[in-house]
């Protein structure tokens, strides 16, 4: 089984809908991250969490919210989706003090 | 603020030839530097990292990278390219003591048979 899983893998939705993307990990890592990937822009950090009680905004958090339900689970919500949130979304994990991040397979989100 | 530049959107190289994917960075203090690879329809995979020590770092799949402090560069290299190396490569930097990593925009490597 994959260490970092994301659901759904693909989602098409309409403008104004609420969407939740879920991430689970079995690596036992404290730190979890949400990124979005857009062509030509690379990966940009949306939110990150260093433990269950710690949530921090990244560089592009507007329009997004997160919930760290447990050490192993970190979900990303779009309260009212808009077309420019169409992107590939990645969850990643990292252990305390560790430098390497481990990525999930991604969720391709299309907002019509 | 930290930043990473990957000046080439795409690099083409013939199979068997050496390859270089360029990366320069800007950060306060000593940097932690990373290379990741992304194959189609997959998440990013860690290739190698520089924390301290030898400037030449060896990683997975025969890749290596050279840290050059004076030129603030961390170029990815491989002596002999394989078609299977074709992928999207990301350079990333993290200042020592901080946890936020900044990624470059990515370089698409195309290895031509």
What's a concise summary of this model?
The complex is a heterodimer of chains A (112) and B (113). Chain A is mainly beta and 112 residues long. Chain A contains no helices and eleven strands.
Provide an overview of this structure.
The complex is a heterodimer of chains A (112) and B (113). Chain A has 112 residues and is mainly β. Helix content of chain A is 0%, strand content 57%. Chain A contains no helices and 11 strands. Chain A has strands at 4-7, 10-13, 19-25, 31-38, 42-51, 54-57, 65-70, 73-78, 87-94, 102-103, 107-111. In chain A, 35% of the residues are buried. Chain B is built from no helices and 12 strands. In chain B, 0% of the residues lie in helices and 53% in strands. The N and C termini of chain B lie far apart (41 Å). In chain B, a hairpin with a 5-residue loop joins strand 7 and strand 8. Chain B has 113 residues and is mainly beta. In chain B, strands 2, 5, 6, 10, 11 and 12 form a 6-stranded mixed beta sheet that branches. Chain B has a 4-stranded antiparallel beta sheet with strand order 3-9-8-7, with no helix packed on it. Chain B is globular. The chains are: A mainly beta (112), B mainly beta (113). The interface between A and B is medium-sized, with 23 and 22 residues.
